[in-house]
Design goal:
By secondary structure, this protein is an alpha/beta fold. Helix content is 39%, strand content 24%.
Length: 267
């Protein structure tokens, strides 16, 4: 019996990713199309993408959720596989995705709305197996007619209107660490966006948020979820996570402080 092979578009968002975009692109060369949304790269990211055969759409930056949704909408095919520039599909996952595509499982009324894959985080050259980081299931292969990007920046997720199946083999490798300078800049940017989002929802920062939440985040990651089993990398990652929580609530407190009348203003 013949099967209907459903084409898949790989969708990537990028900016200044020349040092790691090549392996990302190579890992999805099996897709029927690669679409890259670039939001103003100043290095040769765009040129590298085009050399790899990707279709590049140069655009502004509206935020993570909207940009990933834009990428899905820019694809030529309804089934899309979304990944970030610092991620790559390993060989096992590639083979599993090809089996799904070529089997006809994506066609028909009984097809799932999305497939979730396991993401494996690498930090300081080490696979982070504990601290709540693994297994990290992410819906990345989905039918854009029945699923879309949702969430609150910078925490995006795929929201599916239908069944989500898991692919239990292979990994989506996530190389989140370039350097401490780069990681610190990302943490600073993410905490600012998260604080602004909380303020828009009417959230205020309490003393509990500032004093207790950072310490609890460290305790949960390092002790309760056994981050200590990942050695020095696990300790450093837990400390950075707690610092990120502190920055988020400190910035939220500051955003509300900025709205208060100054000493020379009428109360």
């Amino acid at each position: 019996m013949s099967t209907s092979r459903t084409p898949i578009s790989a969708c990537i968002i990028a900016k200044d990713e020349a040092d790691r975009i090549d392996r990302c692109l190579a890992s999805v060369a099996w897709c029927d199309e690669i679409v890259v949304l670039d939001s103003g790269s100043r290095d040769d990211t765009v040129e590298r993408c085009r050399r790899a055969g990707a279709r590049v759409v140069e655009t502004d930056w509206p935020g993570w959720v909207k940009q990933k949704q834009r990428a899905a909408e820019a694809a030529s095919h309804d089934w899309v596989f979304s990944l970030d520039a610092d991620e790559r599909v390993d060989d096992e996952l590639r083979d599993a995705l090809l089996r799904v595509r070529d089997s006809g499982a994506l066609a028909g009324d009984d097809a799932p709305a999305a497939y979730a894959v396991r993401r494996r985080v690498w930090f300081l050259g080490r696979w982070i197996k504990h601290g709540g980081w693994y297994p990290e299931w992410r819906s990345r292969l989905f039918d854009r007619r029945r699923a879309h990007w949702a969430g609150v920046d910078p925490h995006d997720r795929v929201e599916a209107d239908g069944r989500v199946e898991r692919i239990p083999v292979g990994h989506l490798e996530h190389y989140t660490f370039r350097s401490f300078d780069d990681y610190g800049a990302k943490m600073n940017r993410f905490s600012t966006v998260a604080a602004e989002a909380k303020k828009e929802r009417g959230r205020v920062a309490s003393w509990w948020d500032l004093v207790m939440r950072p310490g609890f985040r460290f305790f949960r990651m390092y002790v309760l979820r056994r981050g200590f089993l990942d050695g020095r990398a696990g300790y450093i990652l837990a400390r950075l996570a707690s610092t990120s929580v502190f920055l988020k609530y400190a910035k939220l407190w500051d955003l509300h402080q900025q709205q208060r009348p100054g000493p020379d203003e009428d109360a």
